[in-house]
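Can you give me the bound-state structure? Components:
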Amino acid sequence: MDILLQVLVTGIATGGVYGLIALGFVLIYKATSILNLATGAFMTLGAFVCLSVMTGAGAPFWAALLATLVFAVVLGLVIERVILRQLIGEPIISVIMVTIGLAFILQGLAHMIWSPDYRSFPEIFPPEPLDLGFAVVPSGLLWGFIFALIGTFIFILIFKFSRTGVAMRATANDQQAALSMGISVRRIFALSWCFGAIAAVIGGVVIGNISGISIYLGDIGLKVLAVIILGGLDSIGGAILGGFIIGILENLAGIYIDPLVGGGAKGVAPFFILVLVIMVRPYGLFGKEIIERV
Amino acid sequence: MKDHKEQEAYQLEVRDVHLSFGGLKALNGVSTGVKRGEIFSIIGPNGAGKTCLLNCINRFYRPEKGRIMFEGRDISRLKVHKIAALGVARTFQNVELFGHMTVLDNIRLGGHVHLKSGSIAGGIYFGKARNEEMAFRRHIEERIIDLLEIEQIRKKTVHTLPYGLQKRVELARALAMKPKILLLDEPATGMNLEETEDMARFILDINEEWGVTIVLIEHDMGVVMDISDRVCVLDFGQKIAEGKPREIRHNEQVIKAYLGEEDLAYSRLGA
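Here's the bound-state model for the whole set.
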């Protein structure tokens, strides 16, 4: 029983972080219908930038995080402006392929600048784990979870209640109508990429804090892809809930199934569940069902 | 001289507009003008270029040649989203609503363009932005919803509504932009007789009570002839006639465009 509770708590904490990264995908997908497969690379770059500012310039963590956020905004703007704007009107699949290429380029860039060595963050948070009585949360995971929750909460507030958020929702729903309402769709696209990049780099910093930094940090983006497909590509609530589901499932599989099959189940379980869910609900748990009435 | 004065009276003027898609000339030198406060209809057979013309005015399309003047200003080179701020609102042939939002949210989005606070300050509803928003909400709730008789459905999600009501909501959203001129693309299409009559009444009300100039594309000739001050007829991207409804009704070229050369003879015989 104790183990089960511990696994659930760990799963929830991990899931919160997945949820934040998933938001990085969803915010961009909702507004622009582009699945940004470079999200993982964004994470890697974010983590490295944060680390470099801290170790190179000796800046405190909050300053480094701020610098990383600024970096994310610039990254989002540049990519939207230089690459994606040229591709407006091209088939969606080619745009998505471009984001894959972008992922490789960014990862290569990280390789060139920071070398593929494995590194760890300097100690940022108090190292004491949180003892809940029935379970213990390791420090890195705890703070990562807190960060992810704050980030997620802010994004939801913006998206649900701000004018910009309403304009983003409108754009996602119907671009023509949004234009005729005086909403600049281009500006909304640029903003979505900024938000997406911000969510991704915060995720990168958090993951870097939990498990160290290497140029392969962004590979976790693939797992998060499972999260958003599970939750529904265009559902913010789905992204968050999907994060928790995948987080809990993989930890359960790691504890209960791994010993039976000799390991590996932790990595496979999320995708196994994903396939099952997709067979029943092709649009994900909360995705918008597109019904064509003819 | 008289001609010059006439031109000045136009609130919206289209001058020699050309637009083509590949080899297809969608608009071939169309010139016309809409006077302030009138109901101006654009009619013509399918594919005549009516919606194209609307899309040019609204800047969804950029005409290859020609100018579009709104209140003395050339708007044909403006950015698309700037057009709304000038006071040009429109509805679409196939309803383009924000389907997953409520009726009220859709209408509120119409007011988006009028919230003046900067995007950061206005980012979250505080202070000035909040007050403007509240004042605006009262305004729309009282007037638009009343006028268009959509009181009962304000909290409903748009895509659950029947088509006729969706058209009405779209009109409400366009009105929420407090436009000077309203471009309506087939507002009565797909409606039954009663709904069509309602729609015609709404358009008249908006025109008379709110003083909004109306540019109307409509296939229902009953509606067009009843409520229009002037009618412009397009055929194959060219203007073939313009004038008061009764002049248009008896214009031979118009009848020819609609019925074809041979039928014209029959219709004359019949008359």
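A couple of observations. The radius of gyration of chain B is 20 Å. The CA atoms of residues 87 and 179 of chain B lie 4 Å apart.
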